Amino acid sequence: MLRKTCTVILCLLALAAPAAQALQQPAQPRGAFLGAGESAGMSSIWFWAGVYVVAGLVFGALAAHRALQTGNRALAWFGVGFVFTLPGYLYLLTRPKKEMAAPAGVPHGLQKIAATSAPAPCSACGAMNHPSATQCIGCGAKLDPQFVSEAQRAGVTR
Fold first, then answer.
1. Interatomic CA distance for residues 132 and 125, integer angstroms
2. Which domain holds residue 82?
3. What residues contact 54, with CB distance under 8 A and at least 6 apart?
4. Which residues pair with 135 in a beta bridge?
5. What sign for the dihedral angle of Cα 40, 46, 48, 50?
6. Which residues are CB-neighbours of 134 under 8 A, at least 6 positions away?
7. Per-residue pLDDT tens for 35-87?
8. pTM of the entire predicted model
């Protein structure tokens, strides 16, 4: 808890430094929108705000990706990565993996997209069958499966 509090305080201090610098500068009248008439350059505040947003998007995406791999909520961790950037992402790396369960309706053991293979012809009638089929769909002849299907490995079928 103390480490988390210190991380939040350090992030807030790092974000407050450019704002404090902007407040110390004397106010000058500005002519055009965002001071475009004064100079052709970009103010340092806008530059650092842009850098912060880009860093937030990068670390938010990294945090969401890592959250999906570890069983955490991706959207919540995207927000943490976006707001706290590197410290938020590093905090996620210290979190333990959660038990990941298959989505509702999917049997345990089928947590990925099944691999597909080319159909195999029946030696008796020539009908095309799935490579893991044990019986021909055309003539009913017994087939030697080329591999065990994902469903059979999960115990869904006989």
1. 17
2. 2-21+42-94
3. none
4. 142
5. negative
6. 142, 143, 145
7. 555 555 678 898 999 999 999 999 999 999 999 888 888 999 999 999 999 99
8. 0.43
Helix axis angle, 74-94 to 44-70, nearest 10°: 90
Q: Which of 58, 78, 94 is the last residue of a domain?
A: 94
Residue 13 sits in the same domain as residue 76: yes
Closest CA to 150 of 138, 132, 125, 137: 132
Same domain? For 10 and 86 the reply is yes
- Short-list 56, 50, 48, CA closest to 88: 56
What gap in Å lies between CA 155 and CA 45, rounded to an integer?
60
Residue at a domain's end among 94, 110, 138: 94
DSSP labels for the chain? -HHHHHHHHHHHHHHHHHHHHHHHSPP----SGGGTTT-SSPPHHHHHHHHHHHHHHHHHHHHHHHHHHHTS-HHHHHHHHHHHHHHHHHHHHHSPPPPP-PPTTSPTT--SPPP----EE-TTT--EE-TT-SB-TTT--B---SS--HHHHHT---
